[in-house]
Design brief:
Blueprint lengths: L5 H25 L5 E3 L11 H13 L6 H15 L1 H32 L3 H15 L3 H52 L18 H22 L2 H4 L23 H4 L9 E3 L3 H8 L19 H20 L10 H28 L2 H42 L1
Parallel strand pairs: 1-2
């Protein structure tokens, strides 16, 4: 095998580490790929993804359905950031060391540029040797982005299950109310005509009067579903500030999803309900579908606030992170290569905010809220870390000056 220089070795190590982390991420998601919920039985099975289970634990400790799931998301995000804080501190320490190393290397790099500017290969060799000597970590520059991606997709899988779980619970609760109302009306009017100890449509005479009665009964049952759906007891968990249904996107989607959405035939990576037909769903949810939102007919669930804030905060977070870490100098070589490298760096800086915006726009408001809270927490943590770092540097500088003056 041909000899690999320092630069190529470091790049190879970074690529292998990135591939390993991404593989672990895929395996974690694949091990929890059950994103369907059957509503054919009497109860809805609980989520299987460990992140979704964690959210349920937090939700139950905060009061369950008596508390908006939006606040559960905020608490979940803060706890998750605290759990990951040792890793965050480690990354920031690496970034701080890189920044100081780059300050020390800057005049030397400029000297190398002047000396070997025409010899690109020699310049790169000398530059990598200097990086090694000053312990400038190229790995530390890439790890924050890699780890952010891994956590992002693992948490995304958990939120995907929570959305499907809530859709299933909403439907199952509504179905029980619907069937109980229909059964009570038929029992009172006709009793058990066919002797099967059930009070259903088979007990209603196939006459004009019977048809009119059953139609009125269905309307009454749908109204009972509507009243229960928007009661404080059931509405609290779904609503959050301006968002009507936190399990639906903070966008133009309907606050109450239709059959196509809840069964995963449309929308963005939603969990899906099974064991139900479109006629059954429309009969139970017919009076609440498309209601409760902004505009005529409740056509908008949200106001696009979280997607916009997610983009802004993600971009600010990227800028603060890049500023706090020592950035490598402008690439050597011809102008075309330098411009191409600079464009690649700019694209990487924009990639995460754009991805955050896409997820925040097309997916649930709960996940958009997670992204917003996570970015805000990371920014505050980074600013606090920078402030502490400045205080430490000032103390060390004063101590050093004091020793010099005593001499």
């Amino acid at each position: 095998m041909a000899y690999l220089g320092y630069e190529r070795k470091r790049k190879l190590q970074i690529y292998l580490l990135a591939a390993l982390i991404i593989l672990c991420c895929v395996m974690l998601v694949a091990c929890n790929n059950d994103n369907s919920y059957s509503v054919a039985g009497d109860t809805v099975s609980a989520p299987t993804h460990f992140m979704a289970k964690f959210m349920l634990v937090i939700s139950n400790s905060m009061g369950g359905s008596a508390v908006s799931f939006g606040w559960v998301v905020v608490v979940f995000t803060v706890i998750l950031r605290l759990i990951l804080s040792p890793l965050d501190v480690w990354q920031k320490i690496i970034g701080r060391k890189n920044s100081k190393a780059m300050e020390r290397m800057k005049p030397q790099l400029e000297a190398l540029q002047a000396k070997y500017g025409d010899d690109k290969q020699r310049m790169q060799q000398e530059q990598m040797a200097l990086y090694k000597k000053e312990k400038y970590s190229m790995m530390g520059m890439c790890l924050p982005t890699i780890i952010t991606f891994v956590v992002f997709f693992i948490v995304f899988a958990g939120f995907r299950q929570m959305v499907g779980f809530q859709f299933a619970q909403d439907y199952k609760t509504s179905q029980n109310i619907y069937l109980e109302t229909v059964s009570a009306e038929i029992e009172e009017e006709y009793g058990d005509k066919n002797g099967d100890k059930q009070f259903d449509i088979d007990d209603v005479p196939k006459t004009e009067a019977g048809n009119a009665f059953y139609k009125a009964t269905v309307e009454k049952a749908q109204q009972a579903v509507y009243d229960a759906y928007y009661s404080k007891e059931h509405q609290t968990v779904r609503s959050w500030l301006w968002i009507k249904n936190i399990f639906v996107g903070d966008n133009w989607s309907a606050a109450v999803p239709d059959f196509i959405t809840v069964t995963g035939q449309s929308g963005f990576a939603n969990s899906r309900l099974t064991g139900i037909t479109i006629d059954e769903y429309n009969a139970v949810m017919g009076k609440v579908i498309g209601t409760g939102g902004y505009g005529k007919g409740g056509s908008w669930n949200g106001l696009l606030v979280l997607p916009v804030l997610s983009i802004v905060l993600s971009f600010v977070s990227q800028k603060i992170m890049a500023k706090s870490q020592g950035q490598p100098p402008a690439p050597t070589g011809d102008k075309a290569s330098a411009n191409a490298s600079q464009q690649s760096m700019k694209m990487m800086q924009w990639m995460m905010p754009i991805m955050m915006g896409v997820f925040g726009l097309l997916y649930s408001g709960a996940f958009a809220l997670y992204m917003f809270t996570s970015s805000l927490t990371m920014i505050l943590f980074q600013l606090a870390f920078n402030l502490i770092g400045k205080i430490v540097d000032t103390a060390r500088e004063n101590k050093s000056n004091s020793h010099i003056s005593h001499r």
